[in-house]
UniProtKB/TrEMBL annotation:
It comes from the Bacteria. It comes from Actinomadura parmotrematis. Its cofactor is Zn(2+). This is M56 family metallopeptidase. The keyword Protease applies. The keyword Cell cycle does not apply. Pfam families: Peptidase_M48 (PF01435).
Length: 302
């Protein structure tokens, strides 16, 4: 039972880790490390929770998960009583729901982007002032990217062109291109699908909010490699003051009307504080351990 118990312990530990990480602020100093840690926690929770249920279900075979599954198939679960059969059904159900909701999230995003691209083809225009960018004739402030496998599109509104000066606009465009280049939309998908599976659990919503903020900070960091940080910080403040609406479904916007995350981003742009080397090293070491250890325990005899 050692393997199943360890997997259950890891499952609980990842939940506790997610709770702590959702309140952490050191990740703001190193957002890419924070994103990797979030991904490891999500993967570790799914694999360990399913593994703990499978380990409990396969206890009668006394061979662990990997070596116990052939025995389960061979005797058609004849050794399983009600408790172990329930655990097996729970593991299969959880795995099926997680995969199905992830695929559904991918389908919804792809469909939304396809529709939005078709709409952009009808209502957007090119502008020599912002080459390679689509312009919408709308007075409100808006700037976002529509990620894609073959090509991504960066979109700004006419209101944004009036709101920002040339330098601020260049910084915003660099931020959006960072989203497209680093495919931050793929980072968000598993967390968005997890919220669909557990919509009533507040921790899941906080996890998604934390990851969304970190990918914005990561895009900010990449943008300031090309433009001075003050340009992007000023642009974010102008956007926040203009109270922009949410970005269209399936897209990634530069800013929302939520003042707290915007000010957190502005403060770190204007007064950057590097993460402590020891913290970054510990997090970098934790990522592969959290992500891979549950899979290794699948082969451990229970």
């Amino acid at each position: 039972m050692t393997g199943a118990a360890l997997l259950a312990l890891i499952s609980l530990a990842t939940v506790g880790g997610a709770h702590a990480l959702s309140k952490a602020r050191w990740t703001w100093r190193s957002p890419r490390t924070g994103i990797a840690l979030w991904q490891a926690l999500g993967l570790g929770w799914g694999v360990s929770t399913i593994g703990a249920l499978l380990g409990l279900a396969l206890l009668p075979y006394q061979r662990g998960i990997v070596h116990g599954l052939p025995g389960l198939v061979a005797d058609q679960a004849a050794r399983l009583d009600t408790v172990h059969l329930t655990a097996l059904l729970a593991a299969a159900s959880l795995a099926a729901v997680l995969v199905a909701m992830l695929m559904w999230a991918v389908f919804r995003v792809v469909r939304a982007r396809r529709r939005h691209r078709a709409l952009l083809a009808l209502v957007s225009r090119r502008d020599s002032a912002v080459p390679g960018t689509l312009v919408l004739d709308h007075p409100g402030a808006a700037a976002y990217c529509v990620p894609g496998v073959r090509s991504s599109k960066v979109v700004v509104s006419a209101g944004t062109l009036e709101l920002l000066d040339a330098d601020e606009l260049a910084a915003v465009l660099a931020h959006e291109r960072a989203h497209a280049r680093e495919r931050h939309d793929l980072v968000l998908l598993p967390f968005a699908s997890l919220r669909q599976v557990f919509p009533q659990i507040g921790l899941v919503g906080r996890c998604l909010d934390a990851v969304e903020l970190l990918i914005e900070m990561a895009a900010d960091d990449r943008a300031r490699r090309q433009r001075p940080a003050r340009e992007l910080a000023t642009a974010l403040l102008r956007f926040a003051a203009a109270r922009p609406g949410p970005a269209p479904s399936g897209t990634l916007g530069v800013a929302t009307a939520d003042d707290i995350p915007v000010m957190a981003r502005v403060n770190r742009l204007l007064e950057p504080v590097p993460a402590r080397r020891g913290v970054r090293l510990a997090a970098a070491l934790a990522v592969p351990v959290i992500a891979l250890l549950p899979a290794v325990l699948y082969a451990l005899p229970h």
